[in-house]
Specification:
The protein is of the alpha+beta class. The protein folds into three domains: about 15-65; about 80-120; about 175-330, Pathogenesis-related Protein p14a. The chain contains 14 helices and five strands. It has a five-stranded mixed β-sheet with strand order 1-3-5-4-2.
């Protein structure tokens, strides 16, 4: 009987040497069935394999391919424009990694947090016109992390692996930027930062990207703290102005009740301030890029500051954000 079935199989192969479309339309698991011996004539599952895995079992051959007519490649399409987020906690969900491709909530958040989690292009441009105030500022707050990252080693002096750009139109005044940070940190008894050229290079690259999209967006999946600033004025903005803007959030921070959840962090609205004075941060670098001037003479300035180790770590605010020394703060004009 076994030999007769084998002959039947051989005849079947010879009669159907080229697969039909139906025979090529197989189960995804046929490869596994072949390895398990389902295609052998004496297998209990031979009839099943014959019906569902004809090609994989070697009972027919794939039809010869013919060169398709030459056609123009389909036009590339840009990602869709983002829809507004419908949930208030989208940035918090992003910070918790719930927007990732492997997240159970990915599809839900792509719809309800489209601007934050979706594969789309945000449109939030800063446009200058004659009715705009002399300086219009916009900044965004980076999501807190739930634990400190250690991928990049802290530096004790400026590194030289990557040099910051030196073009006048897109260079931060390093000394003034560093001094602005350290002046604010001194008000809180926090140690002075050092300038890190690697951080500055990263910041410069991101500032130039923000100019290319004319929008403020945080870079994702980095192990550096980040503050963003944008202005529209008749003169180019400076890092010192950005630090002043970030630090102005000190009035929003509750030193007696530091945030313990992402929602509390975002509700407080002081994330730029806390990163500037974060005690565990030891180094900073910044980048600047501009658009314009336009016909009215207005210049859009984008400034990015990067920090290491990064701040805004949930559970560590009390250890890193200190109340200001009121005597020092008073002489320094602290609000």
């Amino acid at each position: 009987m076994k030999n007769g079935l084998h002959l039947l199989t051989m005849n079947l192969i010879s009669l159907s040497s080229v697969c039909t479309p139906d025979q090529l339309n197989e189960l995804n698991s046929c490869g596994s069935y072949v390895e398990l011996g389902f295609c052998e004539p004496d297998s209990l599952f031979f009839s099943f394999a014959l019906q569902n895995c004809f090609f994989s079992c070697g009972f027919c051959q794939r039809p010869p391919t013919t060169s398709p007519p030459t056609t123009a490649p389909p036009p590339t399409t840009a990602p869709p424009i983002c829809l507004a987020d419908t949930l208030e906690s989208c940035e918090a969900y992003l910070a918790l990694g719930l927007c990732g491709p492997d997240s159970f909530f990915r599809d839900f958040l792509a719809v309800n947090c489209n601007a934050t989690c979706g594969n789309c292009i945000r449109k939030l441009k800063i446009l200058a016109n004659t009715t705009m105030a002399p300086t219009t500022e916009a900044n965004t707050t980076m999501a807190p992390t739930t634990e400190a990252t250690t991928t990049m080693a802290p530096t004790t002096e400026a590194t030289t692996t990557m040099e910051a750009t030196t073009e006048a139109a897109t260079t931060v005044a390093e000394d003034a930027c560093l001094q602005a940070h350290n002046d604010k940190r001194a008000l809180h008894g926090t140690s002075a930062l050092i300038w890190n050229s690697t951080l500055a290079q990263h910041a410069q690259e991101w500032a130039e990207y923000l100019v290319s999209i004319n929008d403020l967006q945080h870079e994702r999946n980095i192990d550096e703290g980040e503050n963003l600033y944008a202005s529209v004025s008749q003169v180019q903005g400076t890092c010192a102005q950005a630090v002043e803007s970030w630090y102005s959030e000190v009035s929003l921070y509750d030193f007696q009740n530091p945030p313990t959840t992402p929602q509390e962090f975002f509700d407080m609205g002081a994330g730029h301030f806390t990163q500037v004075v974060w005690n565990a941060t030891t180094s900073v670098g910044a980048g600047l890029a501009t658009i314009g001037p336009d016909a009215s003479g207005a210049i859009q300035t984008y400034i990015v500051a990067r920090y290491y180790p990064q701040g805004n770590i949930l559970g560590k605010f009390g250890q890193n954000v200190f109340e200001p020394n009121m005597k020092t703060a008073k002489t320094s004009g602290l609000p």
